[in-house]
Amino acid sequence: MTEPALAEQVHYATASGALSSVWLLIAIPLASAVVLLLAGRRSDRWGHILGCASIGASFVLAVWYFFALRGLGHKAVSEHLGSFIQVGGYKVDWGILYDPLSATFALLITGVGFLIHVYAIGYMKEDPGRRRFFGYFNLFAAAMLLLVLGNNFLMTFIGWEGVGVASYLLISWYQDRPSAATAGKKAFLMNRVGDAAFLVAMFLMFGYLGSTDFATVFNGVGALPHGVTLAIALCLLGGACGKSGQFPLQAWLPDAMEGPTPVSALIHAATMVTAGVYLIARAHPIFDATTIGSTIVVAVGAFTLLLGCIIGCAKDDIKRVLAYSTVSQIGYMFLAVGLGGGAYALGILHLLAHGFFKAGLFLGAGSVMHGMKDQTDMRRFGGLWKYMKVTWITVGLGFLAIIGIPPLSGFFSKDPIIEAAFARGGWQGWVFGLAALLGAGLTAFYMTRLFVLTFHGKKRWTDDIEHPHESPAVMQVPMILLAIGSVAAGGLLVYGGFTDWLEPVFGTTEVPEAVHYSKALMTGISIVVVLLGVVISWLLFRRGTAETEQPARTAIVRAARENLYGDVLNETLFELPGKLLTRAAVFMDGKGVDGIVTGLAAIVGGSSSRLRRLQTGFVRSYALTILGGALVVVAALMAVKLG
Amino acid sequence: MSTGDVLAAQISAPHINYGAIAPLLIVLGVGALGVLAEAALPRAYRYLVQVLLTLAAQVAALVIVIVEGVRHYASNPTLTANDALAVDGPALFLQGSILILGILATLLIADRRLERGGAFVAEAAVVAGTEADAKQARHQPSQTEVFPLTLFALGGMMLFCSANDLLTMFVALEVLSLPLYLACGLARRRRLLSQEAAVKYFLLGAFASAFFVYGMAMLYGFAGTVELHGIATAALSSNKSDLLMFVGLAMLAIGLLFKAAAVPFHVWTPDVYQGAPTPITALMASCTKIAAFGGILRVLYVAFLDSRWDWRPVLAVIAVATMLIGAVLAVTQTDIKRLLAYSSVANAGYVLTGVLSMQKSGITSSLFYLVAYGFTVVAAFGLLTLVRDADGEATHLSRWAGLGRKSPLLAGTFAFLMLSFAGIPLTSGFTTKFAVFGAALDGGQTALVIFGVISSVLLAFPYLRVIVLMYLQEPAEDAPTVAVPGAMTATALALGTVATLVFGLAPSLVLHVAQGAATFVG
C-alpha cells in the first residue's frame, strides 16, 4: 500500500518558444466548428474536408509540441492567456498547462480523432447532415483538448461541459429514433449528477484553498484537514464516475451507442469517457493525500470492471457489448489510478492502448453494420469473414489486443494492472487482484463470443441481406492504422519508456512488486485464465447461437440482461427521491394545490367560469402562505434574538 | 435625533443636487409628458410619439447615468435631497441596468408586427369575453397609455435603487408597483387571465406593502429615524430593545422579498408572469427584480451590516428554500411562462446567496448577476412572443414540440438561452452563478453554495425538457407558427442573446465595472 506521499512543491514553468502557442491545438478545431456550424449549406461540399483538416493540423502541431516538450529539462509549462473571472479574492484565468500527461492526451485525441474523422467521411456519406456532424465533431475535439490542456480545474470543467454538450448532440443525432432522444436525455441527466459533484469539489477548493489552479491546489492540499481532502476527492470521483460511466452512474454509456458509430468510437470509447481517468490522474496529489479516497476509487474500479464484464456476456447487440466492455476497461483504469504510485502511469498506459483497440473495434463494428444494413444484432451475423476480409482481420487484432494476448497491446497494459492490484497486499490485494483477474477471463469470454458470432460459424442473416459488402477505402485505412496501433502500441510504449515519460507528473514510476509471487507466475496465471475464457466461449459459440432471444434460465443471466439492475438502481437513487421531493413541494406550494384543484375541476367538467371562480378564490391561500411565511420569519428573528 | 429635529429638517427646504438625480427626473418627467401627449395628441400620432418619447427618455437618462457615473459619483458618491437619495456606485450601476433592460423591454412592448395593433388591449374597460371585446381584439390598435406607465414604473425602480431612507423607498415601491399592476391587466388576448393576474398582483402587493410600512414604523420606533445610516448608528448605540429592530427588519424584508419573489413570498409570481402581457412579464422579470435587489442590498448593507450575525441565518434559510423550491416546482410546469416564472424564483435565491455573503464581492457579484440575468430573461420572454397560433402566444409546452425542425434559428437561440439558465459554461448563466457562489464562499457561506449547486442541477432538468421537446419530438398537426420578428423585437432578442454569450465569455468586462461600483455611500 502506498503511503500518502508528502508532495513536493508543484511548479510549472512559463511557456516559451514553440510551446507558447499550444492554445492553437484548441483554437483550430474550434474555429473549424464555428465555420461549419455557421456557414450553413454553403459549406456542405467541403465541410467534411475542413473538419478532417483542422483536426489533422492539430495532430501535426501536437507532435511538434511533443518533441519540443521532450527537449525541455523541466517538463511542465504553463501559459497564461487572459483573465476569465474574478470575484472577491478568487480569480480564474484562461490558462494552458502542457506537461507529459496533457501532451499524451493531446496526441491521443488528435491522432485517434483524426483517423475517426476520416472514417466518418465514408460512414456519414449518405447522411444529409454530414457537415453539421463534422461541426459537432470538431466542437467535441476542441472541448476535449481544453479539458486536458487547462491549467486549473475550472478550465477542465468548461471542457468537461463542452464535451458533454457535444456528446448529447451526437447521441441524439438520429432524432427520428425515440430511443436516441431518450439516450441523449439520459446521458445529460446522469452527467449532471456527476457535474454537480465536480462543481462542489471546485467550490470546496475555492473555499479552503482560495483557488482552482492546479499548482495552488496541489501545493495546498497537504495542509488541509483530512475530512476536506476526502470530500474534495470523493466529489471529484463523483464527477469522474459520471463522465466515465462508472458505478453507480454507468447506465447512460451503453445507451449512448444510439449515436452514429464514429461517435461511439471517438467519444464513447477512446476519449471523452476516459476524462474521468484523466481527472483523477491529474488530481493525484489530492488522492495521494487520502488513503480512504483512493481506496474508494480502487473499489469503484474493481466493481465496475466486473459489472461491465458480466453484462457484456449477456448482450446480443454488438455495440452494446463493446459499450459494456468500455465500462469494464475504464474500470481497470480507475483501479490503476486508485492504486496510486507507479500504477498511475499504468492506468494512463491502458487508457492509450484502449484508445487504439477499442476505437478499432468500434470502427470494425461500424463497418459490419455498414455492410449489414445497419443491423447490430450479433445473432443475425455469422460467417462474415469471407465477405469482409479487412474488417475481419482488423477486428481480430483488436480482439486479441483487448483480451491481452502477448505481445499485443492489451497484454502490456492490462497485465501489470492485475499484478499491481495483487501487490497492494492484505485482503484488499486479494479482493481487487482476483476481481481484476476474473475480469480478464470474462473479457476473453465475451469478446470471443462477439468475434465468433460475428465472423464465424453459419450465416444467420436476415432475409433482406444478400451480399454484405466491405466498406470503402476511406473507412478501411483508419481501421488498418488503428489495428496496427492495437498490435504495437502497448509494447512500444512499455519499451519506449512511457512510464519514465510520465515520471515528472506522478513523481514515481515504481510499481510495488508482488511479495509472494514471482512476476512470471502472475503473468502465466493471467494468460491461462484468458485462454480458458477464450476456449469456453469458442466451444459454446462456434456453432452459432439461437437467432432470437432465449428465456433466461438462471438468475444471473436475467440480472445481466437487465444491466444488473443499474437502471433500477438509478431510479431508486435519483429519480424516486426527486419525484417524492417534487410531489411534496407541489403539495406545499399554494399554486400546486391550486393547479391540482383546477385540473380536477376541469376533468370533472367545470366550465371556464367555474375555473375562474376557483382561481380567484386562491388569492386568499396565497395571502395565507405569505402570512405564514411572515410569521415564521418574524418568529425566527425573534428567536435568534431571545434564544 | 428627537422629533423636533425631524420636523425642523422637514421645514427647511433641502438642497437638491439636480445634476445628480437628472436621470430620475428625465424618466419621470417624460412619463408625465406622455400622459399629456396621450390626452392632447390626435389618436393617429400617439403611438409614434409615445414610442419615441419613451425610448428617448431612457436613452438620455442612460447616457447621463454613464457619463456622470464615470465622471463624478462612482468615485465621489453623494447624498442629496436631505439625504433621501443616494447617488453612489450601486445606485448608478443598477439604474443603468434598469434603463438598458428597460429599453429592451420597451422595444418588445412597442412591437406591432407580431399582433395586429400590438400586444395590449385597445379598450381595457370593455367587459372581457363579450362581443365588443372580441371586436376590439381583432380590429383596434392598442391604447398607448402603456408607454407612460412603463416610464413611471422604470422611474420608480430607479428611485428605489437610490432611496436612502425607508420613506423614500416606500414611495418608490408604490411608484414602481402601481403602473405594473395596471400594465399586467392590459393583455389583448386571454384578458380574463390577464385581469386576474393584475388583481392578484395588486392585492398581494398591497398586502406586502403593508408589511413594509409596519416594519418601517417599528424601525422608526427603534432608531427614531427612517434614514438608513441612522438605523445603522442606532443599531450600535440605541438603548431601546433591539427586538424592535429585528421585528422591524423582518417586516421590511418581507416587503422587499415579495418584490424579489423569494419563497415563501413568491406565490404571486407564476400567476402574474403567466397572465401579464409577455413584454410586461419581460419587464418585471428583469427590471423589477433588479430594483427589488437594489433595495435589499442597500437596506442590508447600509442599515443592517453590523447586526448581520443575527439575521443572516434566517435569510440564508429563505435563500435555500427559494433556490430549492423554485427549482423543484419548475420541474412540474407545463407552461413555458410559468416555467420561466419558477426559474425566476430560483434565480432570486441565487442572487440572495451572493447578497448574503455580506462582503464587497457580494455586492459586485449580485450586481453582475442581476444585469446578466436580465438580458437573458428579456430575450427568453421576447422569444415566447414569436411562437403563435390562432389564440395568440402558444405557451403550453406541448405546443413547442418539434420547433427545432420548423424554425432552427428560434429553437437554437432558445436552446442557448435555456443552456445559459442551466448554467452551462461559456454562457452568462455559468459565470453569474460562479460569481455569486464565489462571493458566498468569501463570506463563509459554504452551505448556501452547496445547496445552490444542487438547486442549479435540479433546475437543469426543466430547461432540458424544453430543448428535448423542441428538437426530438414530432411537431403536432396544428403546430403554432413562428412569426418573423419586426426590427424592434429582433433588436431586443439579438442584444439579449449576444449579452448572454459575451457575459459568459468575458465576464470580467462587466464584473470590473460592477466592482468599481460596489461601494455604498456613507
Radius of gyration of chain A: 26 Å
Largest interface: A-B, 63 and 75 residues
- Strand neighbour order, sheet with most strands of chain A: 1-2-3
Distance between the termini of chain B: 18 Å
Number of strands of chain A: 3
Give the mean pLDDT of chain A: 80
Distance between the termini of chain A: 51 Å
How many alpha or pi helices of chain A? 26
Strand content of chain A: under 5%
Total individual domains of chain B = 1
Segments of chain B where pLDDT lies below 50 for 5+ residues?
Answer: none
Structural class of chain A: mainly alpha
Globular, elongated, flat, extended or rod-shaped: what is the shape of chain B? Answer: globular
Number of strands of chain B: 5
Verbal overview:
The complex is a heterodimer of chains A (643) and B (522). In chain A, 71% of the residues lie in helices and 3% in strands. Chain A is built from 26 helices and 3 strands. Chain A has helices at residues 24-39, 47-70, 100-123, 130-149, 153-171, 178-209, 214-220, 226-244, 252-255, 261-270, 275-282, 284-288, 291-314, 318-339, 343-371, 389-403, 409-423, 426-455, 473-495, 498-501, 503-506, 519-541, 555-561, 566-588, 590-604, 608-642, and strands at residues 13-14, 77-87, 90-98. Among the domains of chain A are: 290-550, no CATH class; 557-586, no CATH class; 589-642. Chain A has 643 residues and is mainly alpha-helical. Chain B is an all-alpha fold. Chain B has one domain (3-517). In chain B, 73% of the residues lie in helices and 2% in strands. Chain B has helices at residues 3-11, 22-40, 43-73, 89-110, 131-139, 146-162, 166-184, 191-223, 228-237, 242-260, 268-275, 278-303, 308-331, 336-355, 360-384, 403-406, 408-421, 428-442, 446-472, 487-505, 508-517, and strands spanning 78-80, 85-87, 387-389, 392-393, 481-482. In chain B, β1 (78-80) and β2 form a beta hairpin. The radius of gyration of chain B is 22 Å and the shape is globular. The mean pLDDT of chain B is 89. Classes of the chains: A mainly alpha (643), B mainly alpha (522). At the A-B interface, β2, α5, α6, α24 and α25 of A face α8, α10, α11, α13 and α15 of B. Chain A: The chain crosses the membrane at residues 20-39, 46-67, 101-121, 133-151, 157-175, 196-217, 223-242, 263-280, 292-314, 321-345, 351-369, 390-409, 429-452, 473-498, 518-541, 619-640. Chain A: It comes from Actinocatenispora comari. Chain A: InterPro entries: NADHpl_OxRdtase_5_subgr, ND/Mrp_TM, NU5C-like, Proton_antipo_N. Chain A: One of its GO terms (biological process) is electron transport coupled proton transport. Chain A: Keywords: Membrane, Transmembrane, Transmembrane helix.
